[in-house]
């Protein structure tokens, strides 16, 4: 019994779209529900059965961004710390990653493994020594301290990623450029860097995400004036219960910029990941 | 320490001399053949990484032999007590067991669903970009938000998911029942990270040369055969890389568990990372936490070593 | 090859700086110089005469904040104080009104609020580093004070210093049992903290349900089920079971379950169980003197006692007929469940009253009554969970003095009254004098205007009763407590999940406890 080709195709497509739709519901329902809850009244948020249609109410956001809610300061701390730490990690990571890829260090394997291993330490165990160090350097509760803390996990990551990306780029062009009179650094800057741009963007966005989302370091190393948005979210878990309205609104604020940034560079992210991971 | 005279001698020496000199220098640690631009490029990174890794590592070793539990200003030496406390302890091994379950089940689900969705998206005739865009959103959700969301959705009083489950007649306390709590926590991880696997696999699929697929088609191989023979070998490496990165992270990150179940009920979600947090911050037993942290570090390094070996195998 | 040398020097410097960092952190024993507690210009201060502090809006009938004549309230102008505290109502209220203090003293106060776990974590890191990043510390008696008392300033140094402001109303104005448990550790030589908040467990119940079905229950079971000092835990169990069954059968529609508990694997589970354990005359250690000032070595566990076994069995029975959500709820989950109208009775911290009376988040406004907890064979026992605030001894003298001014203000009857009235606060005072004023007395009566303004006063009548020595339960105050607490609630959680019997549970707790304390 032969099934006509177009029937087969329709069946297949229906099947595919069903799977994809189910997957999207699974992935997005929590987020949609969070955003919806953030614009509900408190009573509406807890109503059973849940309400899917309601008049949005922006009081929570208004409160958060009022002077009393003080949310701008959390937000600006988060932006400053994560953007600067991403830039630092990218700059150092690109230079170092290139060096690792081209440097012919004798114990290159050991060196690069040591670099990635600095990101493996279990955080609760290393917090005490890091705290002692930071407190001796006067960094606790300061913005440089937070930057430094974020760099501890972003830099090894950036170094490693960039090393992998640079290894993908053939060396011949650089060598040719150097014969033509370019310095080593110029060869790096003009010849080797442009092809890894997608990788750079992918690394950057992941670094940004790690630091933007970080809670463990931020909660310990930030002070009254340097608390970030994830810390603000944790402050909503109070002795008398969780302020769910604000928690949902804060969650919305935390994920929005990352989602926008991530989606804006989606193309590069995919390209970058395929560069690094697929040979 | 070198004297100035030695330094100037070094300066005047030619390349061969210099090489000999170098083998006794402490810089040999870095095993640098000759000083090139590259060394200057990596130096700042190495200094920063050295600062953040060497002292904490040495301190962990030191702390693992000290008693922080006494009521005095300074910890005192207590031999291998901390190590005994950690290693001869049911909770420690049970937590490792749970971590293993968490990692194996979680990663298995992530790979199966992730690859499945990637293939489905790859075959989609239309709307591929839109689907990928929407599907990858959970990756960007902060773990603390994922935890809060999990707690909100699964709450038996007003949670959306609890309500949906009760509609189909499943009336369990998801986070309060030993049978479901671990599954729920694993599913939160799966929710957040499956899209990453999909992305990587999809990237792999898209970069595949068209020829082998078409060649296989001409051979008359069916879809499954094509998958197994052509696609999987090409993306398996990718998947393994993703897996190793994820498994190292699973050991480290416990934000979601901290917000939702705090290890309970009946310890059913106490993974090793959360146990470490409990010893370090709840018990404030930094000595035992250091010993525990070192065991975790060794485990992670072992995992990482496999990962690197695998990564570099193809290079040579 | 100049670059070689430069390169080496840089690496060398990096290593040296690392070693220095490492050394300084391990060898920086703080020189314990005796703290200077005198006010500036002490010679111009007349300690014989007390003058009111320049705060506005004194409340009649409460002791005022005073200082000796000639004391300059602005002498610490420019000092910046970091306060770390749990995210509790009094802290929110102080943070909202901190300008009152800042305007008078010129001291800048940063109040940092986190959940208790984070407070414990940051405090212990700060003490270990001796860095005094936080000057004023929320000294939870069990998780912080018992373990870290050696890092706090002995406040007697300030109390005895006549040139500094005194504690308004004196130490006698604090509730004595609270001063003992929050302020001291080991003995009453040194005072480390002043009582700051005082949540205590009492029974919240739905008076609509209990009135409506009273006769039916009486006919069925033969006793009056109205919660109060005469109800026993067995009767509580009977009542909870009865309501849960009737609700399941659809005969009771007001609620879904007879009782709700905070039985998540969490500190809350230990507190919840302690009410019953102590009611049956049990305790966690053989030494019965650990609740008040505490001890550094608690001695042997008493969890193998008959009282412990019996209470564990009863607790398991109770949870089995309670709202099934109980095993996933800590105190806030329970509070939300009760406020949603699902539960007929719940042992809960008295300060949740404001949540139950808040029409935005509660469906049970006006339907809640408060009673003392049921009694066991031996007595009634109410778990107490209050905390004090103290001063980090690693700060500079000036910071410590400024911190003292803050303590005086924050724990004063005037500030406690302000906290009680505050919209963001609403916690209950730690001072006798505040409870004596008429407005507060009225607030304790249901239905009065004052009780609507200050809903946390509604449970105060039973709470004041619960604070009496014979009715309160103070858990052991020992440095090992955070660990032992974890053993207790973990093993109890296993019991509730049917992984072990009550008998195995108490024996396991005893075993682990003795291991941890070395007994």
UniProtKB/TrEMBL annotation, chain A:
<comment type="similarity">
    <text>Belongs to the binding-protein-dependent transport system permease family.</text>
</comment>
<dbReference type="GO" id="GO:0005886">
    <property type="term" value="C:plasma membrane"/>
</dbReference>
<feature type="transmembrane region" description="Helical">
    <location>
        <begin position="146"/>
        <end position="166"/>
    </location>
</feature>
<feature type="transmembrane region" description="Helical">
    <location>
        <begin position="187"/>
        <end position="212"/>
    </location>
</feature>
<feature type="transmembrane region" description="Helical">
    <location>
        <begin position="113"/>
        <end position="134"/>
    </location>
</feature>
<feature type="transmembrane region" description="Helical">
    <location>
        <begin position="15"/>
        <end position="36"/>
    </location>
</feature>
<dbReference type="GO" id="GO:0055085">
    <property type="term" value="P:transmembrane transport"/>
</dbReference>
<protein>
    <submittedName>
        <fullName>Sugar ABC transporter permease</fullName>
    </submittedName>
</protein>
<feature type="transmembrane region" description="Helical">
    <location>
        <begin position="243"/>
        <end position="265"/>
    </location>
</feature>
<feature type="transmembrane region" description="Helical">
    <location>
        <begin position="79"/>
        <end position="101"/>
    </location>
</feature>
<keyword id="KW-1133">Transmembrane helix</keyword>
<dbReference type="Pfam" id="PF00528">
    <property type="entry name" value="BPD_transp_1"/>
</dbReference>
<dbReference type="InterPro" id="IPR035906">
    <property type="entry name" value="MetI-like_sf"/>
</dbReference>
<keyword id="KW-0812">Transmembrane</keyword>
<keyword id="KW-0813">Transport</keyword>
<dbReference type="InterPro" id="IPR000515">
    <property type="entry name" value="MetI-like"/>
</dbReference>
<keyword id="KW-0472">Membrane</keyword>
<dbReference type="InterPro" id="IPR050901">
    <property type="entry name" value="BP-dep_ABC_trans_perm"/>
</dbReference>
<feature type="domain" description="ABC transmembrane type-1">
    <location>
        <begin position="75"/>
        <end position="265"/>
    </location>
</feature>
<keyword id="KW-1003">Cell membrane</keyword>
UniProtKB/TrEMBL annotation, chain C:
<feature type="region of interest" description="Disordered">
    <location>
        <begin position="499"/>
        <end position="519"/>
    </location>
</feature>
<comment type="similarity">
    <text>Belongs to the bacterial solute-binding protein 1 family.</text>
</comment>
<keyword id="KW-0813">Transport</keyword>
<keyword id="KW-0732">Signal</keyword>
<feature type="signal peptide">
    <location>
        <begin position="1"/>
        <end position="24"/>
    </location>
</feature>
<protein>
    <submittedName>
        <fullName>Extracellular solute-binding protein</fullName>
    </submittedName>
</protein>
<dbReference type="InterPro" id="IPR050490">
    <property type="entry name" value="Bact_solute-bd_prot1"/>
</dbReference>
<dbReference type="Pfam" id="PF01547">
    <property type="entry name" value="SBP_bac_1"/>
</dbReference>
<dbReference type="InterPro" id="IPR006059">
    <property type="entry name" value="SBP"/>
</dbReference>
